[in-house]
Amino acid sequence: MKAAIRNELKKLILHKKYTVLLIIGVLLGLAWSLTGYLLSAALNAFMGLGVLWDFNSVPTSSLPMFAHFYLPMMIFMAVTDLFAGEYGDQTIRAALVRPITRLKLYTAKLSAIMIYITGFLGVVFTANLIAGVFVGGVDSPWVALRSLASFALTLVPLAVLACFAALGAQIIKSGSLLMFSMILSLLLMSVLPLLLPFTRNMLFTSFLGWYRMFAGALPMAGVLVNTALTLLASGAVFYLAGTITFDRKDF
Fold first, then answer.
1. Do the Cβ atoms of 74 and 21 come closer than 8 Å?
2. Quick one: which of 184, 169, 208 has its CA closest to 79?
3. How far apart, in whole angstroms, are the C-alpha atoms of residue 68 and residue 125?
4. pLDDT of residue 201 exceeding 60
5. What is the rounded distance in angstroms from the CA atom of residue 147 to the CA atom of residue 128?
6. Domain limits of the chain?
7. Which of 130, 146, 218, 234 is disulfide-compatible with 204, CB 3.0–4.6 A?
8. Average pLDDT of the segment spanning 76-97
9. pTM assigned to the model
10. Could you write out the three-class secondary structure of the chain?
């Protein structure tokens, strides 16, 4: 299993676009996080408005962009490469020749994607944390730990999203169509709660920013339990449906 995960992770790393996306992500995160500081300094210097910036938010101020847009796009791309791409060029057959079950191979692909996403968030967090220290925003270990917890919690709904995309890859053969369908699905699931508020607690996409629950005072235990159960149930359904479909595919 470990060898399979390393092999799938190697496939992602060998794609130069993921290295480029990591570099772009770090630069975007730094630019996003420091924009408020620079604007505040400029307004104070030239206009004397006395605008203040919450420096303690520097490490996590770019997290919404990554959680709702950047990382979902990367997950869709990775799923397209490791699933639909291999289905299209039939390289999946070479992987199935090895002494590994289809369940383990499917799990290895998802694990490789989430390991990469975890590494991505780790690099972005480190860069933003250093930027926060530089501008005086991280003035205590508590700020750093709270920021780290926010980044770690973001991984939970992203893992569910990866399972959802992997299930879609078992149904849609075309890589370009899969990418388009996943983006459209994410958009629709993000807009639906605005039109039908009662669906907010039913869709896992409503919790892509659930780390905000822990930013201030903790919400009621019931809210946390309901959120955790929704994410767990959604992930389990998508994962099990994906493995069953993958096992029945005729390669």
1. yes
2. 169
3. 16
4. yes
5. 10
6. 2-248
7. 234
8. 86
9. 0.87
10. CHHHHHHHHHHHHHCHHHHHHHHHHHHHHHHHHHHHHHHHHHHHHHCCCCCCCCHHHHHHCCHHHHHHHHHHHHHHHHHHHHHHHHHHHCCHHHHHHCCCCHHHHHHHHHHHHHHHHHHHHHHHHHHHHHHHHHCCCCCCHHHHHHHHHHHHHHHHHHHHHHHHHHHHHHHCCCHHHHHHHHHHHHHHHHHHHHHCHHHCCCCHHHHCCHHHHHCCCCCCHHHHHHHHHHHHHHHHHHHHHHHHHHHHCCC
Would you say 239 and 159 are in contact if contact means Cβ atoms under 8 Å apart? no
CA angle, 234 then 228 then 191, to 5°: 60
Is 185's pLDDT higher than 90? yes
The answer to whether 224 and 231 are in contact (CB under 8 A) is: no
Q: What is the mean pLDDT of residues 19-40?
A: 80
Q: If you search the block for the tokens 């630069």, which residue do you land on? A: 27
Name residue 166's amino acid.
A
- The tokens describing 82, both together, are 């490791």
- What is the average pLDDT across 219-230? 75
What's the average model confidence in pLDDT over 194-217?
78
pLDDT of 46 reads 61
